[in-house]
Structure formats: C-alpha cells, structure tokens
Design a protein that fits this description.
It comes from Mobilitalea sibirica. One of its GO terms (cellular component) is plasma membrane. Its main location: membrane. By secondary structure, this protein is an alpha+beta fold. Helices cover 57% and strands 18% of the residues. A hairpin with a 3-residue loop joins β6 and β7. It is globular and about 95 Å long. Bound molecules: adenosine-5'-diphosphate. Adenosine-5'-diphosphate binds next to α4 and α6.
Length: 256
C-alpha cells in the first residue's frame, strides 16, 4: 500500500509538471500570436497614411493642379497624415518601452497636482480648438511613481475626453485619495461609449468610430497604454458611460 501511494504521488507530480509545461507553451504561443497581430495591425496603420501621402505628392508633381487653394488643401492633408504617423510611432515606442521589462523604471515621489496642471496646460490648445473647457479639482497627494508614466496616463484620458466631446462640452478632472489609494476621475459630456464596446476600448487598435478617431489624430492605442500603466501599479479602471451623454473613467492606484 505504501509503495502504491508513493507511486501515485509521483505519477500526479509528473502529470502536474507536464500540464504546467503545456500551459507555459500555450502562453508563449498566445503571446507570439498577440505580438504578430500587433505588428500586422501597426504595419497596416502606417501603410495607409504613407499611401495617401504618396498619392498627394504624385498629384502635386504632375502639375495638373494649378489651383492654389487645391494645392494648399493637398499640403494640409499631407501634414495631417504625417502628424498621424508621428502619433502612431510615438505610441508604438511607448508600448515597446512599457513592455521591455529589462528597462529600469525610476520611481520618485511625484506631486500629483503640479503634474496634472502641467498636462492640462499642454492640452489647452486642443481644448480651445474643440471648444471644450477643462475643470480641475486636486487634493495634494504625493505618489511614489514614475512621473512620465503618470503624465502619459493622465494625458491620454484627458485628450480622449476632449476629442470625443461635443462643442461647448466640459471635462471634469478630479484627484482625491481613499484608503491609501489615489483616485483619478476624468469625466466628459461627450459622445459616450456603447455598452458592448466598454471592454473593447482597452484593446489595441480598437476604435468605436474609426473616422472620428483618425480625424482627431487618434491611434487606437491610447487606452491600451492607460491599461498597461494602471496594471503596472496594480491599480484598477472603472468605466461608466452613456451614449450621447458622456463618459467617466475612474482610476485607482495604490499610493505607495
Ligand atoms: P484613439 O487614439 O482612437 O482615441 P484610444 O485607445 O484612446 O484610441 O481609445 C479607443 C476608442 O475608445 C476611441 O477610438 C474612441 O472610440 C473610444 N473612446 C475613448 N475615450 C472616449 C471618451 N472619453 N468618450 C467616447 N469615446 C471614447
């Protein structure tokens, strides 16, 4: 009986080991698939503006368009496509930096209110263009974190709240603390997010309205970057939204 029990334990251990090897192989395969999908999407997203730019340049080169107004329009389209490509490359670089675990992330004591004000000031021109006003309310909090990551997180959320707002809309940003957690909320009076898209907006390259996103210089990567940063700090994201009424993103991050 004793030998039988021992054999049983050994057999179970071998089975567990085989299962964990299979699981890790599946995980590696899955990660490989995600990476391949990312590169294929990113290449496609870059190819589209390059093709348009080439088209506009050829039209301008042909000399068929002598109308100055039309030429000006082509130049501004080239400028817009180039700026979209720059946004995309910057976001891809950001994701690659976040995913490279070898890079050491420097953590310091970050004063949240000045950082938030700095981000809002840099987004003021976009808010003015979109006729949106930003309201700020910030409780003084110091968080042990990487300032650049926090800047990226806050900036992506506020940029979206401006871009997907309505003319004369509002963006309300608040920072408070609750039980050793920093609570950041970004609320807008914009177009809102349909129920079935609430989970998907955090996926890479997913957009509810691709046309609107592109027009506003979106890449489809902003919220996936936000999710990545929140996960890095073991935080959480809550999204409340109603179509045509607005959205509210609530981010909770442990302060230490
Ligand atoms: P994008 O660069 O397209 O803005 P994001 O990853 O930041 O990409 O967001 C994904 C999509 O989620 C957007 O294209 C948009 O459709 C939707 N979205 C994000 N934030 C908001 C918001 N505040 N209000 C309405 N829709 C939003």
């Amino acid at each position: 009986q004793y030998q039988y029990d021992e054999m049983n334990v050994i057999a179970q251990t071998v089975l567990q080991m085989a299962n964990s090897v299979k699981e890790s192989r599946n995980r590696i395969e899955f990660e490989k698939m995600i990476r391949q999908e990312f590169f294929s999407n990113a290449s496609h997203e870059l190819k589209t503006p390059i093709t348009s730019i080439q088209g506009y340049i050829e039209l301008l080169e042909n000399g068929l368009f002598t109308d100055e107004k039309m030429k000006k329009d082509f130049y501004s389209r080239i400028k817009k496509e180039t700026s979209n490509m720059t946004n995309l490359i910057n976001d891809i670089l950001m994701i690659s930096r976040l995913e490279t675990k070898e890079i050491e992330v420097t953590l310091t004591d970050v004063r949240i209110c000045p950082l938030l004000k700095e981000v809002c000031t840099s987004l003021e021109p976009l808010a003015k263009d979109c006729k949106v006003t930003i309201e700020l309310s910030c409780k003084p909090i110091v968080m042990h974190a990487n300032a650049q990551q926090l800047r990226e997180l806050i900036s992506n959320l506020i940029t979206n709240a401006i871009k997907y707002n309505k003319p004369n809309g509002k963006v309300k940003v608040t920072v408070t603390s609750e039980a050793k957690e920093l609570v950041l909320t970004v609320e807008d009076t914009g177009v809102g997010i349909p129920e079935d898209a609430k989970q998907r907006v955090f996926e890479r390259f997913y957009r509810v309205d691709k046309g609107r996103s592109k027009k506003m210089g979106g890449t489809g990567l902003g919220l996936s970057i936000v999710k990545h940063i929140v996960n890095y700090y073991n935080g959480s994201i809550e999204l409340l939204s109603k179509v045509n009424e607005g959205s509210k993103f609530i981010i909770r991050l442990p302060i230490q």
